Amino acid sequence: MESSKAVNLDVYSSLSFQVVSPKPKPGSDQYNAFLAEKLGISVGFPDSFAESIPFTLNDVNAGAENEYQTAVIGSAAYVDLPLTIRDSNYYKNIIKRTERGDTSPKIVDSLRRIIDDDQQRIWEHSWVRFPFAALAPYTRHIFESDLRADKRRAKSPQRSDARKFVVTENGEELLRIPVSYLLKLALADACSNGMEQSFYIKRAAELAMQSYANDNTSPEIISFRPVPVSDKNGLGRCLARETALRFLLTQLLTMYANNRFQLSAMGQKVIMYSAPHPPVRQKELNDIISDSFYRELFINPCLSGWDKGEEKLEYMKLCHSVLSRSQLNAVIKLKEAGIITSNLTVIPNVSNICLANNSTHISLGSKKLTGALGNADSGFTKVDEKYCGDLAIKIIEHFLPLFVGTYSAAPYRLDFWDFHPEKALGFLPHELDFTHLRMIWRRWKKKAYLKVFGQPVTPFGPRWLDEIFSTVFRLRGDYVSDFRLLDYFASFMSTNESPALDGSLGNGERLREDLAELGIIDKHLSLYFLYRQRSFEAKGFSGFEGRYYSLFERFGDDMGEAVNLQTLLSALAFKYILKGDVLHHQIPDTPTVESERRQIFFCTAIGIPTFFIDADTPNFFMRKILAKTRRTRLSRRYSNYVRVYNLEYRRALIEILREDAADLIELYGMRETINNLGRRVNDPENCSAFERLTVHICKEAGISSPMKLDGKEFNLASEEFYRETLRKLHLEEAMSYAEEEIAVCMEKADKGNNDCCREALQFILAGMNPATFFESVRKHITEEKATAEVLSKLIQILLIVIEQFGKK
After folding, report:
1. Is residue 213 within a helix (H) or strand (E), and if so which, with residue range?
2. Which residues lie across from 183 on neighbouring strands?
3. What pLDDT is stored for residue 766 in this prediction?
4. Cα dihedral 584, 588, 591, 592 sign
5. Rounded CA separation 369/92 (Å)
6. Reduced to 3 states, what is the DSSP secondary structure of residue 222?
7. When you count CB atoms within 10 A of the terminal residue's CB, does the N or C end of the chain come out lower?
């Protein structure tokens, strides 16, 4: 027995047992070490630690979604928008009701002034009409496929609204489509000949067509593939170049459509350009018509980008109706907050036009996070992704004022009569708590100098009375740097019971249900935040989306540097998290703390010079920033609040970046990015995007200051600048990048790195050098005089260049 026992003990001693430690609880002292281990990050080795953090140099890639303004130039006798209004039952019924005396003739008179005005030749977001016969066979096939109710089923019936896309005029069948879909058809048509001969062209064209979709109203054009870091240009400059190349491609597509589809011959000229605000004329039209008729005219039918387009269309309509209702609910909140103190209010229109705002969304993906989440054995799960993602967002939100007006902007002029709080404050009542909302409104009125004999005043209500009052007392209103951020529902505020960023799974769904019960949104709507997590489970990659960008004056200098800073901040947030320097409870998940940090962002968009922070704020990270902020003092007006200068706060953020992200700045080679940021913050008159755009617009309008014109005149001048001058500046910049990238593409082809690419280029140009060809037709592109044949070749060449972009 003893011998037997000895043998058994030897057997046991030869076995090794692995003791599995329980997973630390998120937020515990051991949790950050657990995260670092599962992601393969050596926290104890400073050099390798900086290189191994998510979103650092070799880990990150990026993509962009660009929303653009479109317009059709032409007489009301030929353009679809006025023709559709004139032929609509809505217009006919309004006329009959007016003739019977059932309604005021003002509506009919206003509509007639719009659709019968011979001087009106700009029709923003109008659809187009052209002969169905102008489509090539392949393009016709694409259109017929897109008309299917379910594109995944080859035998699917047509959409129930298919008839609205074809009209008959003088016995000829015309296609009637929005410009966002016209771009896709133009792409298919321009490449149809090459697709038959070259698989390379076919693949590039089909990939590009998938990226031409639409926002609620505007075209939305997405990066064809994620953009990796380039040693030569860095991630920011790479994504800016890719965006510029897509912009150039889209400009070529509009020119091709005008020519090949006979739009110009039929009195219609389509243009596409960057513009952040809903057009003045579209707002005026929206004030006249019903919300359902507005949706009929402007909400995109979603022919491209979704398998079930009609379902997406209904979602778009839901977004519009819910946000319109939500704006009305904001009036009640303003009254509860004490901002509206009487029953004399201007009820906002039941049709809200905020979804016609245009922006750029920039998404960053981490290969490390994506790889870990895609590996079931990594130990890093969606629970950990959510914990890290929510905390990173809370950290980064403190830095977002650095972006507003510096890299992008949306200048806007408000008159005195626009300062009804229920109109000027937009969706802020749903984004900030009452304390910060009241502070912002008081400071904004002070900035705009809305005073008479030292007493603050706001508009009375009747427009004619406000105009007289404004003239007599020289109340000119205000000029703000980024009105889009106020005019759009940029970020949902948490409720007390359902914090949105506490790191727990399902918190977004719980918040959405709370907000739906409060009548703010519908439970089917997506939740939007200034910086939004993109989860691996939903998107196939793990990262973040920046949604706070409005209009870039330049691709390379503005967008490129902004992407660099966004990337640096994402990496810095993970550095804080993985080292355990910032924990969730140190940035409490209460509506007040959330509002406290976001108010700074909105104050920056308005241009308010100061804001107020609770002296006893429980936000540890805010305390860290304020410790480095100069010129702070206790407020005389608000007990136990600290008055903070916006400029000094942003300077403190830059100082923190220089200190806490020194290793990342060195790793990225971002010293110049930080220096550039400092110049934009400290010398905005010469370096910020907002001031540069202002100078351009004033020059276009022939004035020395935005306050020299009233709101409508200045905002119309800004639209003309975006539509003409800025579009051409963007086109010139994009063509310069294209010229360089064509040379790079040719160099790769000459070295034999890609035979398919070389063969495709030879097919397109019959052996002619692409760089020589591009140079020979560059002037024709600038003057918009290129033939359809030339444009077709350029489009195919550019597709190949974009397909090769970023590849080594």
Report:
1. strand 212-214
2. none
3. 84
4. negative
5. 58
6. strand
7. N
Q: Amino acid letter at 346?
A: V
Distance CA 654, CA 670 (A): 13
3-state secondary structure 115-158: HCCCCCCEEECCCEEEEHHHCCHHHHHHHHHHCECCCCCCCCCE
**364 DSSP β-pair partners:** 62, 544
88: helix, strand or coil: coil
Q: Cα dist. 128→75, 177, 211, 646 in Å?
A: 13, 6, 21, 46
Cα separation, 808 vs 804, whole angstroms: 9
DSSP state of 53: S
AA letter at 72:
V
Pairwise CA distance, residues 589 & 498, whole Å: 9
Contact 605, 405 (CB under 8 A): yes
pLDDT value, residue 8: 42
% helix, strand, coil for the chain, step of 5: 55, 10, 35
Q: Residue 776: what residue type?
A: S
Question: What was the pLDDT predicted at 185?
Answer: 97
Among 519, 505, 357, residue whose Cα is nearest residue 430: 519
Write down the pLDDT at residue 6: 41
User: Nearest 5°: CA angle at 537, between 536 and 539?
Assistant: 60
Q: What angle do CA 585, 586, 591 make, to 5 degrees?
A: 75
What 3-state DSSP class applies to 273?
Answer: strand
**How many Cβ atoms are within 10 Å of 463's Cβ, its own excluded?**
12
Confirm if 60 and 364 have CB atoms less than 8 A apart.
yes
Q: Which helix (H) or strand (E) holds 272?
A: strand 269-273
Q: List, run by run, the mean pLDDT of 10-residue segments along the chain (808 residues).
A: 40 42 80 91 81 91 96 95 95 92 88 84 96 95 96 93 93 95 97 84 92 90 87 82 97 98 97 96 92 94 92 93 87 89 75 92 97 95 96 98 98 96 92 97 96 89 89 95 95 95 95 92 90 96 97 97 97 95 96 98 98 98 98 96 98 98 92 97 97 97 96 97 97 96 82 74 85 93 95 95 79
Contact status, residue 181 vs residue 214, Cβ threshold 8 Å:
yes
Closest CA to 664 of 30, 28, 60: 60
**Token pair of 790, please?**
């030339």
Dist CA 696 CA 694 (whole Å): 5
Strands 641-645, 633-634: pairing kind: antiparallel
Residue found by looking up tokens 């209500």 in the block: 461
Tokens representing 259 are 């020519």
Burial class (CB in 10 A: 0-12, 13-18, 19+), 756: middle
CA distance 114 to 78: 14
Backbone angles phi, psi at 103, to 5 degrees: -145, 160
Element (H, E) at 221: strand 219-222
Scanning the structure block, which residue is given the tokens 């998940």?
589
The pLDDT assigned to 430 comes to 94
First-to-last C-alpha distance (Å) of the chain: 71
Which DSSP category does 724 fall into?
I
The rounded Cα 263 to chain-centroid distance in angstroms is: 30
State the CB neighbour count (10 A cutoff) for residue 735.
18
Distances 89 to 58, 85, 97 between C-alpha atoms, Å: 59, 8, 12
pLDDT of the residue at 233: 65
Task: Find tokens 């330049």 and name the residue.
Answer: 554
Contact 444, 608 (CB under 8 A): yes
Residue 532 identity (one-letter amino acid): R
User: Hey, what are 43's tokens?
Assistant: 């926290």
Long-range contacts of 709-713 (CB under 8 A, 24+ apart): 709/413, 710/413, 710/415, 711/413, 711/414, 711/415, 711/418, 711/477, 712/280, 712/415
In 1-127, the DSSP E strands lie at 60-67, 69-73, 122-124
Which residues, other chains included, contact 506 with Cβ-Cβ below 8 Å and sequence gap of 6+? none
CB atoms within 10 A of CB 537: 10
